[in-house]
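Key result, reporting period 2: structure in, sequence out.
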């Protein structure tokens, strides 16, 4: 080793016992200082007395003049690079991959990389400017070599994130890492502005691009998961399907970072975030339509669609998810819910209402004359239809208490007046007067009570 290189190493290593984050990584203290984007970079410079900095600068000039530029670069970047690596370790970052990482590991990485980018790397930039004063090219190259190992170590984490599996559950960790990188890129560009260190800036930008691609791939995998979800068996009672709950709440959580999601989806001319999420929701709705066909009872099929459609509508009508989907999509979904609700009511109570109104004249609303035997037969048929409907739907599910209350109220409003009018018609028939008590199985109060008992168990069992 040349005497000048040995002297330079001696001067540098004498100062490397100091760290600007000294003690932050002690085993009994998990707290990590968070870097701030302010010029508080004197910590590293202060580790070198002015006289020492001047001595280092003098040795560097002599080495360059003596044709020992390569040895100078190696000695400086090795000593300062070791200092950076030790500083990062003492911050608590002791490993990178494998992925997936737990939430606390992601949070730790975010804090450590912010300290590195906002404090450690700018401090090294400032130190290089003083040590290599008058030797700008050598200083830029020394900075790049000094920080290369630390950058590689820190950026192995997002690289691992970007190349790991495409499980939808990884989305939120990916977006946390992406958002951290987005904040850091301008500062990295400021620190590594020289030609020799531009590769470090490119490394950070490439990591961000790969993370964005990984997020788009995760959304594609979410769509595949929806497609692959088996149609059968049907959900008991026509209630809320687990896939509906999973997809809607997943997208709501993803949209809390709506602006980040829009930025990622729009990169490289990709589909807008609203379109991407709209496709996922449309896939879900199509899957639900297929699942509804598993029910033998048409009313239960429509109730299943109503349950799931109502849940979706309530979850998207406000908040970031609704903003991304847009008003047109929400209006279309609301119209579908109304259609399913109407179809459920028609298939549940339509035959009952048609029976009760069978002899009513459409023009005046009065009853046309009808034989007592015909009225008695209609009453018996009503008893059978109403009883069968009640028995069938006693175990059916309505996932939302407000919806259940509205369905019960609508049924009462639809059935009870027609039934009361029919009973008045029966009582006006002298031929049925004696047998009326035996024929009438349900009083109006009984009809109301039974309808009010429908779906009562739903809220307690969901």
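The corresponding designed sequence is given below.
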């Amino acid at each position: 080793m040349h005497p000048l290189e040995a002297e330079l190493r001696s001067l540098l290593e004498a100062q490397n016992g100091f760290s600007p984050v000294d003690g932050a990584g002690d085993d009994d203290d998990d707290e990590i200082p968070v870097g701030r984007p302010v010029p508080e970079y004197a910590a590293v410079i202060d580790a070198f007395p002015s006289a020492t900095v001047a001595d280092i600068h003098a040795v560097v000039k002599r080495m360059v003049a003596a044709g020992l530029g390569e040895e100078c670069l190696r000695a400086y970047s090795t000593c300062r690079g070791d200092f950076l690596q030790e500083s990062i370790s003492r911050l608590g970052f002791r490993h990178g991959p494998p992925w997936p990482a737990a939430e606390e590991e992601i949070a730790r990485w975010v804090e450590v990389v912010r300290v590195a980018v906002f404090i450690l790397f700018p401090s090294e930039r400032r130190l290089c400017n003083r040590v290599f004063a008058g030797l700008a090219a050598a200083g830029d190259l020394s900075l790049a070599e000094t920080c290369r190992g630390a950058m590689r170590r820190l950026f192995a984490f997002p690289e691992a994130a970007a190349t790991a599996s495409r499980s939808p559950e990884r989305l939120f960790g990916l977006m946390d890492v992406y958002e951290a990188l987005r904040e850091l890129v301008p500062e990295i560009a400021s620190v590594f502005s020289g030609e020799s260190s531009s590769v470090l800036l490119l490394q950070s930008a490439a990591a961000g691009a790969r993370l964005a691609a990984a997020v788009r791939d995760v959304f594609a995998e979410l769509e595949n998961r929806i497609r692959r979800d088996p149609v059968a068996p049907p959900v008991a009672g026509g209630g809320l399907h687990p896939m509906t709950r999973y997809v809607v709440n997943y997208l709501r959580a993803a949209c809390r970072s709506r602006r980040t999601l829009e930025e990622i989806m729009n990169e490289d001319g990709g589909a807008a975030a609203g379109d991407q999420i709209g496709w996922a929701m449309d896939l879900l709705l199509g899957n639900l339509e297929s699942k509804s066909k598993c029910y033998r009872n048409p009313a239960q099929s429509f109730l299943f669609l109503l349950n799931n459609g109502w849940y979706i509508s309530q979850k998207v009508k406000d908040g970031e998810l609704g903003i991304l989907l847009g008003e047109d999509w929400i209006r279309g979904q609301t119209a579908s819910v109304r259609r399913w609700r109407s179809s459920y009511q028609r298939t549940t109570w339509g035959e009952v209402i048609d029976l009760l109104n069978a002899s009513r004249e459409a023009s005046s609303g009065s009853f046309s004359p009808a034989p007592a035997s015909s009225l008695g037969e209609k009453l018996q048929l009503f008893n059978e239809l109403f009883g069968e409907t009640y028995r069938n739907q006693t175990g059916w599910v309505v996932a939302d208490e407000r919806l259940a209350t509205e369905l019960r109220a609508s049924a009462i409003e639809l059935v009870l007046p027609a039934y009361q009018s029919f009973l008045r018609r029966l009582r006006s028939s002298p031929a049925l007067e004696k047998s009326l008590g035996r024929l009438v199985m349900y009083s109006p109060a009984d009809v109301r009570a039974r309808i009010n008992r429908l779906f009562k168990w739903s809220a307690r069992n969901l």
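The longest helix spans residues 198-228. The radius of gyration is 37 Å. This case is discussed further under Risks and Mitigation.
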